[in-house]
Write a structure and sequence with these properties.
By secondary structure, this protein is an alpha/beta fold. It has one domain (about 60-265): Rossmann fold, CATH 3.40.50.150. Helix content is about 30%, strand content about 20%. The chain is built from eight helices and twelve strands. It has helices at about 60-70, 85, 105-110, 125-135, 150-155, 185-195, 210-220, 245-255; strands spanning about 10-15, 35, 40-45, 50, 75, 95-100, 115-120, 145, 165-170, 195-205, 225-230, 260-265. The strands form three sheets. It has an eight-stranded mixed beta sheet, with helices on both faces. β7, α4 and β8 form a beta-alpha-beta unit. α1 packs across α4. The longest helix has 14 residues, at about 60-70. It comes from Pandoraea nosoerga. Pathway: tRNA modification; N(7)-methylguanine-tRNA biosynthesis. It is an enzyme of class 2 (transferase).
Length: about 270
């Protein structure tokens, strides 16, 4: 999942179900539990929050990036984020979104919740440009973006107990069984996210892949510091009003596909 501190390539795209369905995995990534680096040394393989895919920014996205990037795109730094300086205010609830795709959902939620500050993490440059375009058109003042690998952002920029919420919507389900270990929602990363939540903070995930929903439910339920916010027999939550139904999701619903929301809270 990590890009080892290097800026993402121009064709980097998040492991996100709304994105293209095919693409090459990053260099050095193999199906085993280790990879061999250029130094010839075997290293434990870490899950990546993105995969390499083709994709180019439109002219409108490039213009938005040039005009609004300096204000709304924050540089990655291996040190705690200064939220008041980044957002120009203090005391607002802080929400992290990992892999926002083309940003439609992020912009929708940020408009509905102007009193919350949203930090979106995305490596795919067209997606960053698309969200910046929406920020300018709406306009929005409560969204900032970090164009970097999510694991390193969470590890180094977000201190323990600093978040009020985390959104992960439609991450890549990695359909093939041998690729399941590449899924974002694994116990170590869920534990890391939980450590960054304040007491009472929430983690909201959504997927349209039932088997992944079942794994998410197992992994989230296995994290001792989290508790499910619903008491239904299946453990899944109704879609919260703030999460919009995306075009991709609508298409799936018309075809009879299911969508599963999971909302857990920090004890």
């Amino acid at each position: 999942m990590t890009n080892h501190g290097h800026p993402p390539a121009d064709d980097a795209q998040p492991a996100h179900d709304d994105a293209a369905a095919t693409g090459a995995t990053p260099s050095n990534e193999q199906d085993g539990d280790v990879y061999v680096g250029p130094d010839g040394v075997a290293h434990p393989r870490r899950i990546r929050s993105f995969v390499r895919r083709a994709g180019r920014s439109s002219e409108a996205q490039k213009r938005a990036f040039d005009a609004l990037g300096p204000k709304f795109v924050l540089p990655y730094a291996a040190q705690p984020l200064d939220w008041p300086a980044a957002f120009g205010r203090d005391g607002a609830p802080r929400i992290l979104e990992i892999g926002f795709g083309m940003g439609d959902g992020t912009a929708h939620i940020a408009k509905l919740r102007p009193n919350d500050d949203f930090l979106g993490v995305e490596v795919h440059e067209p997606g960053v440009g698309a969200l910046l375009k929406l920020i300018g058109e709406t306009p929005l003042s409560n969204v900032r973006i970090v164009q970097h690998d999510a694991v390193e952002v969470v590890e180094h920029m977000l201190p323990a107990g600093s978040l009020d919420g985390v959104h992960i919507f439609f991450p890549d389900p990695w359909h093939k069984k041998r690729h399941h270990k590449r899924r974002l929602l694994q116990p170590p990363f869920v534990a890391l996210l939980a450590s960054r939540l304040k007491s009472g903070g929430y983690l909201h995930c959504a997927t349209d892949w039932q088997e992944y929903a079942e794994q998410m439910l197992e992994v989230l339920g296995g994290e001792a510091s989290l508790e499910n916010t619903v008491a239904t027999a299946d453990g899944y939550a109704p879609r919260p009003d703030y999460r919009p139904v995306t075009k991709f999701e609508n298409r799936g619903l018309r075809l009879g596909h299911g969508v599963w929301d999971l909302v857990f809270r920090k004890r």
